[in-house]
């Protein structure tokens, strides 16, 4: 029965949707309290007052999804199409979460997180219920189990994402790092950036690789003079010690000017086990640019490639 079931496109459609959507739920469950304390600076009382609201909104989403499907079905839409309609409404609403990091108001950020929880459960309950609409009674449990496995696999895989820092808090507002140059001394901006990266490296945030550790160097103005890695050696080493202790890997990013091999050697000395490469391309022709040079820098620091081309480099 399982082999026959796995050949059905409907199963893979439901499983794929849950694979892509459930990491949002994992993020709300695992990452949101940390986000509220680290980025929005909520104290324990504020966290207790507001961190449960997205889960209340999620409960309401569990009621809203079936209500939308029932409303559409009463108006003549086929049941499966009514479910798809509710699913689509949830998917559309979920896009609102992309603005959480862009808003200045903590209250608006919490409201957007609530929207994310509401939208996810609107979508999720519709996808889960589709199994009982599509598959025979003796296959519903298996189909639901396969889709649930895909959902949890998505949560697992998406926790192995890149962690990076593009903003720091200045005067209570989350600001793009590049915009602080000109408002503050360049050296202070760089050190503030590294302090934020250190906080990220030592946190329990769900990521597996720290990306472009020296992202800030892209924005250092010319009047600051050449970016000097040695001037920030202690900052690098502190970050690398925290990152190595967390068991994560470091990315060597080729869009940022390549560091000297000594920087990667600091990572090696801190106990760093693994290294990945990223081109931060955003355009297909630029994917993998300068990887040959980056590989030479990594090798000079003591890292070696894995057995497969896509493997991480290790010490």
Describe the structure in your own words:
The chain has 2 domains: 2-158, MFS general substrate transporter like domains (Growth Hormone, Chain: A, Up-down Bundle), CATH 1.20.1250; 162-314, Alpha-Beta Barrel (TIM Barrel), CATH 3.20.20.140. The protein has 315 residues and is an alpha/beta fold. The chain is 58% helix and 8% strand. The N and C termini lie far apart (46 Å). The protein is globular. Strands 1-4-5-6-7 form a 5-stranded mixed β-sheet, with helices on one face. It has a two-stranded antiparallel sheet with strand order 2-3. The protein has helices spanning 2-6, 9-30, 32-38, 44-50, 53-74, 79-94, 106-134, 137-158, 177-180, 186-201, 233-246, 261-269, 291-300; strands at 162-163, 167-170, 173-176, 209-210, 249-253, 274-278, 313-314. α2 (9-30) packs antiparallel against α7 (106-134), α5 (53-74) runs antiparallel to α6 and α10 (186-201) runs parallel beside α11. β5, α12 and β6 form a beta-alpha-beta unit.
SSE arrangement:
Blueprint: H1 2-6, H2 9-30, H3 32-38, H4 44-50, H5 53-74, H6 79-94, H7 106-134, H8 137-158, E1 162-163, E2 167-170, E3 173-176, H9 177-180, H10 186-201, E4 209-210, H11 233-246, E5 249-253, H12 261-269, E6 274-278, H13 291-300, E7 313-314
Parallel strand pairs: 1-4, 4-5, 5-6
Antiparallel strand pairs: 2-3, 6-7
Helix pairs in contact: 2-7, 2-8, 5-6, 5-7, 6-7, 7-8, 10-11
């Amino acid at each position: 029965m399982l082999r026959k079931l796995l050949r059905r496109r409907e199963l893979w459609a439901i499983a794929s949707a849950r694979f892509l959507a459930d990491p949002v739920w994992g993020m709300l469950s695992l990452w949101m309290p940390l986000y509220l304390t680290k980025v929005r600076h909520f104290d324990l009382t504020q966290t207790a007052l507001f961190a449960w609201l997205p889960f209340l909104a999620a409960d309401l989403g569990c009621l809203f999804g079936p209500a939308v499907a029932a409303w559409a079905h009463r108006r003549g839409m086929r049941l499966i199409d009514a479910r798809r309609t509710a699913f689509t409404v949830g998917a559309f609403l979920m896009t609102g979460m992309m603005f959480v990091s862009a808003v200045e108001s903590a209250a608006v950020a919490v409201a957007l997180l609530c929207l994310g929880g509401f939208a996810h459960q609107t979508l999720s309950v519709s996808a889960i219920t589709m199994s009982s609409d599509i598959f025979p009674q003796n296959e519903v449990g298996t189909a639901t189990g396969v889709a649930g496995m895909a959902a949890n696999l998505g949560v697992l895989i998406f926790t192995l994402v890149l962690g990076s820092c593009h903003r720091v808090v200045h005067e209570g507002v989350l600001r793009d790092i590049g915009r602080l140059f000109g408002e503050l001394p360049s050296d202070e901006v760089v050190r503030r950036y590294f302090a934020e990266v250190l906080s990220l490296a030592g946190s329990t945030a769900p990521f597996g690789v720290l990306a472009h550790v020296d992202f800030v160097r892209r924005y250092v103005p010319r009047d600051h003079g050449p970016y000097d890695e040695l001037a920030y050696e202690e900052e690098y080493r502190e970050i690398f010690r925290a990152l190595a202790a967390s068991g994560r890997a470091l990315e060597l990013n080729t869009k940022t000017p390549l560091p000297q091999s000594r920087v990667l050697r600091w990572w090696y000395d801190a106990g760093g086990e693994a290294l990945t490469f990223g081109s931060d391309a955003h355009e297909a022709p630029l994917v993998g640019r300068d990887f040959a040079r980056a590989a030479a820098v990594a090798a000079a620091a003591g890292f070696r490639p894995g057995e497969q081309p896509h493997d991480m480099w290790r010490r």
